[in-house]
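Re: 1,3-dihydroxyacetonephosphate structure - here you go.
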Amino acid sequence: MLGHGRDLATERGVECPGDLPAPSDPDLVARARAARATLGDRAFVLGHHYQRDEVIEFADVTGDSFKLAKEAAARPDAEYVVFCGVHFMAESADILTADSQTVVLPDLAAGCSMADMAAIDQVEECWDELAEAGVADVTVPVTYMNSSAAIKAFTGRHGGTVCTSSNARTALTWALDRAGSGGKVLFLPDQHLGRNTYARDLGGALEDCVVWDPHRPMGGLTAEQLRAATMILWRGHCSVHGRFSVEAVQAARRDIPDVRIIVHPECRHEVVELADEVGSTERIIRTISAAPPGTAWAVGTELNLVRRLAAQFPEQRIAFLEKNVCYCSTMNRIDLPHLVWALESLVDGRVVNAIRVEEQVAHWARVALDQMLALPGETSRD
Ligand code: 13P
Ligand code: SF4
């Protein structure tokens, strides 16, 4: 969703491309196929699980953000990595690929409202205030993949790491260990993933968590509260997953016999607590695909994925957990016209919407991403 009513495309300095094909063009699929075939091995197309069907059809690999980051890093021969996902994912791909490779995001307005909830200036200010409170030197920053490259660089500079929903438990265990006894983790920008990982996966106490509000002096906290806390959670959330409710879980349990509730860890803690299974998009797919036929599921994640799961596994009974939740509108920005436009431009020798992270930022962000990729058993919980 486009958070705060801002137009990300305008903010990122791009105009809507004039030569975008019309969505009604009956030849769009044929055009995409032809451009894809012409590019051959020169291009590699990555597709996040939340992408539209019309786009995912053209992905060489689909995955969650962890898998896609690894896939991007594992394609050194592809001249172009076309990223069908959102901006922070494409930035990470640019950081993890060689300078000779170009990452293309078919629509630059495909941002992430959660990532936009933490600006680098706010994070730097937070760190200064933690220093004033005397806790910065015992705090290890961990940022969720859903954050800007500048924030990943911040965590790299301060000895922290990046995590995704599939390795948050390992990353947090590593960070708490690194922080040592009495140490703390500053978890950015998703308070829910931080809280769920600490309290549900690691068995930590909710009272050890405080929420840092970037719009208030000292995050709205006292130095004493900061000193007593183990988890300093940034006040950010996903505008899609934040809408799944306890009432929806209760209704699913009431209305669907033997239902299993499976949700993404970006959901609120009270929702996650009531679920039977919690995991990244990749884990949700794997869990459902491995279940016996006839299993009933209520799934709390983005709607494109849930609809695709229902179509792919007709032998299972798959329902969307909450009627009032809509698609992730920024993921949906990547549609077939944008993909065709990006691919045909590459065929014509024009690179459009290249994502390039400035060198100094990329250096430190890579330190943090490499730290994530080096975590022990980093795929253990996906
Ligand atoms: P995954 O890493 O689980 O795919 O999640 C990415 C995301 O943006 C979820 O909202
Ligand atoms: Fe961002 Fe939420 Fe969309 Fe994921 S679903 S890309 S966290 S807004």
